[in-house]
Amino acid sequence: MRYQSLQLIKFKTVFCIALMQFIVTAPALSETGNRITILYDSIGEHADMQKDWGFAAYIEFAGKRILFDTGNNTDILKQNSKAAKVDLGAIDIVVISHWHRDHTAGLSYIREINPETPVYVPVNFSTSNADPNEISITRLTKINEISQDIFIISSLRNETGLSKLQELTLALQTSQGLVLVAGCSHPGIQRIVEAASKINPEILNIFGGFHLLRTPAKKINDIASVLRDDYKVRQIAPGHCTGEVANREFLSIFQNDFIHAGIGTVIQIPQ
Ligand SMILES: [Zn+2]
Ligand SMILES: [Zn+2]
Question: Max alpha carbon distance in the chain (Å)?
């Protein structure tokens, strides 16, 4: 009897662990619906993923598998994707936010294993960042609906004293408003959100880097308040180059609607 009950306990334990693993890592698009997985970031914790400066997110939305940015190191991108059970060889759409190395390092590898997959890049993107073969690369300006309910917003950093920099932001049209995925937000998160609100004034969530590492706390607080009060952004999930001070300010404004996103974070998004 004792032996049987131990066996039963063992079975139950194994079953529970298997079930937990399934819940945490279940990869199939049709089973889990729409979600965002942070594949590459220097913040957060994940047992099997390596933290590193840079950004990449894997998005399953409207039947498409989207890779947004490709991190700072191809091997780390591969390792983290494997840990998240993301098949980098089965990507439907690649979006590169901007040319900086910490967003583009894995691009040549991704193009190698997904030769037919469309790649969207900013208009001034240099081919040396990709490869000399331009087939399947599309350079974007303005706002584009690249697939049903999937938009890409192009914005320009155009400040005196800084070089001009074009950046792409992903915007997903959900039943509860837009979900934005930003790379570094070099043109300014407010400018990006302003452009996004022309697609849909309801903004559900913003992921990615906000580039506020050197911005004073007071100014960040103002930006957070504008996002919350003027643009009615409901939730915020900053990462990458947002900065600790900015995270603190966003948390104080958004409170329960501040999502602690980092490496390995998986967040369900509505249809
Ligand atoms: Zn950048
Ligand atoms: Zn960056």
Answer: 80
pLDDT less than 70: residues of the chain: 1-32, 127-135
Reading the block at residue 76, the tokens are: 């780390």
3-class secondary structure for 63-95?
CEEEEECCCCCHHHHHHHHHHCCCCCCCCCEEE
Rounded CA-CA distance 173/2 in Å is 57
> 105 — phi, psi (to 5°)?
-55, -40
Cα-to-centroid distance, 20 and ligand 2 (Å):
33
Q: What does the DSSP 8-state code read for residue 258?
A: B
Report the C-alpha gap between 268 and 228 in whole angstroms. 21
Taking the CA of 208 as reference, the closest ligand is: 2
DSSP 230: I
